[in-house]
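Trying the structure run again after the queue cleared.
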Amino acid sequence: MTLAAPIAVYVLAALAEIAGCFAFWAWLRLGKSPLWLVPGMVSLAVFAWLLTRVDADFAGRAYAAYGGIYVTASLGWLWLTEGQVPTRWDILGGGLCVLGAMVILAGPRAA
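Done. Tokens:
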């Protein structure tokens, strides 16, 4: 099993989820226009659709593996969009999350 396809989908899903959630953050915390919610909701719908594209027998397993990718993507957002450099603890935690996601994705399954 190749991990490239699900990881690519998870990365795209993470970007869609973070962008959608940030639209709400911008509206509620940064005083942006409520119109920010329109692309935010579209982005969240794209996120949900993308998660259904992962070849997994159970939604919970797909979501659990996604979580590790999401944490790492969030740290990238923190750095690239918000200008806050992740700490070494952020990086260590993100790495552990990705490792956990890889274990979930690549672990053997009963036939």
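Residues 4-106 form one domain. Worth checking whether this holds up in the mutant runs.
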